[in-house]
Design brief:
Elements lengths: L18 E7 L6 H11 L5 E7 L5 H5 L6 E4 L4 H11 L4 E4 L4 E2 L4 H10 L4 E9 L3 H17 L9 E3 H7 L9 H12 L3 E11 L1 H6 L1 H16 L4 H4 L8
Parallel strand pairs: 1-2, 1-4, 2-3, 6-8
Antiparallel strand pairs: 4-7, 5-8, 6-7
């Protein structure tokens, strides 16, 4: 398999692996500059490209972005569509798909590089939630257990792929919801090695706090359950709020 950027570097050698962090955004004007700073701090010393993909019609997040040396991509709305658009512009050996409300742990890039050198084609991190509330600690723990048992980590766990593997998979499906589950199901069927790393990403608690912890959690479980029962992502998207 070959990447659009050329053959993948030999992961067992000493050469550095390059990363492209693809961030789909929608209405992140207040946070985008600090978020870019966060990625650069975690990736300090590593060759990391940052790709911000704005799905809003007014491109408000891109207009608010003042950091230099960031690849900006306007796109149609939809997380899968935005991430595919970003991947098409990305030049790195490893693609990291990072939600704009999720922070990477210290040592994240080293951990991903080590997983790739061990032969993984893709992976994700354990789930963390930025909150001290016991209910969200429970949601966090259940989410980690679920992803490890099912081998289906979600998008808020910072899914990453070798660029050539992502291309061979055909990228994310252009569906309004469940694009993260869909691609991991294809990974399982293809036999590609996937690793879930023990380090935790920390995702914002804002959706749970806005919608209610148990209402949001039940809704998420319901959506996934219905998806596995064969309900189309188009129908499921009617139950999902995109403004949170």
């Amino acid at each position: 398999m070959k990447s659009k950027t050329g053959p993948m570097r030999e992961c067992g050698g000493d050469m550095a692996v390059t990363f492209s962090v693809v961030v789909p955004v929608l209405g992140e004007e207040e946070h985008v500059n600090n978020f870019v700073d966060h990625i650069r701090v975690v990736g300090y010393g590593k060759p990391v490209e940052i790709v911000i993909v704005d799905g809003a019609a007014d491109r408000g997040t891109l207009a608010a972005l003042h950091r230099q040396n960031v690849t900006t991509v306007p796109s149609g709305r939809g997380r899968g569509r935005q991430m595919n658009a970003g991947a098409a512009r990305a030049r790195g050996d490893i693609l990291v798909f990072l939600h704009a409300d999720t922070h990477l742990p210290s040592g994240a890039f080293e951990a991903m590089e080590d997983a790739i050198r061990r032969g993984a084609g893709c992976g994700a991190f354990d789930l963390g939630i930025r909150s001290s509330r016991w209910a969200l600690r429970l949601v966090e723990r259940v989410g980690t257990w679920r992803s490890r048992l099912t081998r289906l980590p979600y998008g808020d766990q910072a899914q990453f792929f070798r660029h050539d593997v992502f291309d061979a998979l055909g990228g994310f499906a252009d569906i309004p919801i469940m694009e993260d589950v869909d691609i991991m199901r294809r990974v399982k069927r293809s036999g590609i090695k996937m690793e879930i790393l023990g380090k935790k990403v920390m995702t914002s608690a804002r959706r749970w706090e806005r919608e209610g912890i148990w209402a949001c959690t039940f809704r998420n479980w319901l959506l996934v359950g219905l998806y596995f029962l064969g309900v189309s992502p188009q129908k499921l998207s009617r139950l999902y709020r995109y403004d949170a």
